[in-house]
Amino acid sequence: PTDENFLPQTTATQPAVLEQEAALLRREAKTVWQMLQVSVWTYLTQLAARQMERLRQDLIPPQ
Fold first, then answer.
1. DSSP string spanning 13-31?
2. Predicted confidence (pLDDT) per residue in 14-26, tens digit
3. How is residue 60 annotated by DSSP?
4. Phi, psi for residue 33 in degrees, rounded to 5
5. Whole-angstrom distance, CA of residue 21 vs CA of residue 13
6. What is the distance between the alpha carbons of residues 1 and 10, in angstroms, rounded to a whole number?
7. How far is residue 13's CA from residue 52's CA, in Å, rounded to a whole number?
8. More confident residue, 62 or 35
9. Using CA atoms in the order 21, 27, 28, 32, what is the torsion angle rounded to 10 degrees?
10. What is the DSSP string of 28-55?
11. How many CA atoms lie within 13 A of 42 on its CB side?
């Protein structure tokens, strides 16, 4: 195939390829964001649990 025949095909497929890549990136970003939210939520929950335990120990004097 000559360059003249080849170039229009590649330029025609580029938008579709870019759209696919964009969709993949969006999906990956969404997954990363969800993982980040879960890890932050887990951290805050554990932090709150530790704080509650510390408060409980402070309020209840050792027997």
1. HHHHHHHHHHHHHHHHHHH
2. 888 899 999 999 9
3. S
4. -60, -45
5. 12
6. 13
7. 58
8. 35
9. 160
10. HHHHHHHHHHHHHHHHHHHHHHHHHHHH
11. 6
What are the tokens at 4?
Answer: 């003249």
**Residue type (1 letter), 48:** A
Residue with tokens 């590649």: 10
Residue with tokens 């390829």: 17
The pLDDT tens digits for 13-56 are 688 889 999 999 999 999 999 999 999 999 999 999 999 999 99
Between 12 and 28, the higher pLDDT residue: 28
